[in-house]
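FW: tagging you since you asked about this chain on Friday. Here's the raw sequence from the shared folder, copied in full. Didn't touch anything.
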Amino acid sequence: MRAARRALLTAAAAVLVVALTACGGLPVSGPVNAGKPIPESEADGGLVFIPREPIKDATPEQIVEGFIAAGSGPSENWSTAREFLAADIRTQWNPRAGVTVYRAGERTLRQVAAGDYALTVTPSATVDAAGEMTFSGDAGDISLSFTLAQQADGQWRITQAPDGIVLDEGRFTAVYGSYALQFFDPTWTYLVPDQRWFPKQYAATSIAEGLVDGGPGAWLEGAVSTAFVDGARLAQVAVPVRSNVASVSLQDGARALGREVLDRMQTQLETSLAAAGIDAVDMLVDDQPLAAEAISVRTTRVDSRPLVRTDDAFGFISGGSGSSIEEIPGLSDALVPIDAVDIEVNADRTSAAVRSADGAVSVVGSDGTVRRLDTRAPLVAPSIDLQGYVWSVPAGAPGAVVAFAPDGTRVAVADAWPGAAEISAQRVSRDGTRVAAVVRDGGRWALWVAAILRSREGVPTGLGTGRMLGVLAGPAVALTWLDGSTLAAVTSAGGDPALYSQRVGGFGETERTPDAITSAAGGLQSGGVRLRDANGVLYAQRGANWQNFASGIRVLAVQQGSPR
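HL: got it, structure written out here
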C-alpha cells in the first residue's frame, strides 16, 4: 500500500510539473527546460524542480532560456542556474535580490545585437530581497538585458545578467510559499502578520532570518513592535528541523534578556514558523535551550454568526431566516432606535460606530449614550479601532481623515491617502495597526493599505507610506477585513457585481456576486465573507455558490473582533 501510494504521489507530481511547464511561457521541449520533480522522500512533501544544466554546444538563445528556466531551482543557492554563467560572474550573481513575477505567456526574448539579448516581461508583481511582494499594477513592460560570450572551450555562457530571477505566476507559486512573519501591536496584545514570499525549500531558515535578523517591512515601521533586539540575533543563518521541531540558535546576548522578552520572542517564532509546518521551536544559545514559553495573545477572530439589524432587533442571528436574534446586552437596546445604514461594533461589544440615514457618523455606547461626531457630507462608512477611536472621512476629501476619541475629541490624521481624489470605503484592521481604503488615483480605483502611527497613549497621529494592493473595476460599495491578512471589496462597475479578495502582500482574485450588494462582513471562517443586498437578503458562500442565508436584514454589521 505504501509503495502504491508513493507511486501515485510521484505520478501526480509529474503531471503537475507538465502542467506548469506547459503554461509557463517557456520552451516545452528541448534540452533546457525545467521539469522533473525530485523523489518524494527528498522533496519534504512538496514539489521541487530540478532544472537541467546547459547542454553542449547550446546556442546563445538556448543558454538564456535555460538560465531563466533554472530560476525555478533554488537548491544549493541556485547552483544549476549558475552553470549558465561565465565562471568569473557565478559568485557575483545574486538570485536572492528578488523575483519578477509575470503572467504566463507575457514574455518575449529577442536578440538585440551579437551576444546581446533582451527579455521583455509584463510583471504582475515583484518580490524584493526581504520577501515582500509589491503589486505592479499598470506599470507596463520591463526589459532585462543579457550579454553572452563564447568561452575558451567554445561554449556560450552569460557574462552579464541582472540579479534576481524571473518566474511566471504558476511556477512562482510552486517554488515560493507565502509566510506571515508575526509582530506585535504596540500594546503587545495582538499579533500582526507581515506577509513574505520565500522558497519553500528554505522556508524555516528564511522565516527565522526575516524575523530575527530583519524586522517588519518598511511600510509597517512605527506601527508594530518586535521582541528581537541587537545582541540576540541569529548565531547562524540556518534552522535545522527535526521531527517538525525547529532549532533557532541565537547570539549570546539572548541570555541576558528577561523572561517576558524571551516569551514574546518564542511567541513570534512559533506562530511565524507554524506556517512552514513547524510544530515546535527551541531557542538555543551555544546549543543550550532558553527557558521560554509562548504567551497568550488576543485573537482577531469574530463570532461565526452574522451580526445584523432587523426591523425590531440588533444582534447575532441564531436561527435561519433571521427570525431568532441573540441581542448584545445594552448595545442592542441603544442601536435599535437609530436609523442606521452602517454599523461597526468594537471587539468588546461595548460601543459601535454608526452612519445614520441622514449621513452623520455617531458613536453609540452600551450604556445608551449616542454621541454625534461627524456631519461632513458625504461620509463613507465609519470604522472603530481597538482604542475606541472612530475613523471618518468624506468621500470627496480622502486626505481629511479624522479619528474621534471616545470622549468625542477630534484628531486629524496626517498624511492620509496622498494623491487620491476620491475615497469610497475605509476600514481599520481588527488589531488597530493598519487601515485599508478604496481610493481613486487618477483614472483608476485601487485598494490601498497603510500603517497607523500612534502616540504612546494610543492616539492616532498619522499614516505611514501606503501600499497599493490591487486595481479595482470601480468604486467599492463595501470593504471589510476578512482576517488579519485578507481584505474583501465589493464593486459594481458596469453593472457587473464582483467580490475582490486581496491578501496583503499577496495575490488578489475576483468572483461574481449576487446583484445589488450593499454591504459585506467577515464571516463563517477565516477568509469567509457574508454579503447583504438592497432587498435585505443575506448571503453566505458555499463553495462556488452564494446561498440565501437570511432575509429581512436592514444592516449587516461589521465585527472588530471578539471579547476576551
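FW: The chain is about 15% helix and 40% strand.
HL: agreed, and The chain has a mean pLDDT of 90.
FW: great, closing this out.
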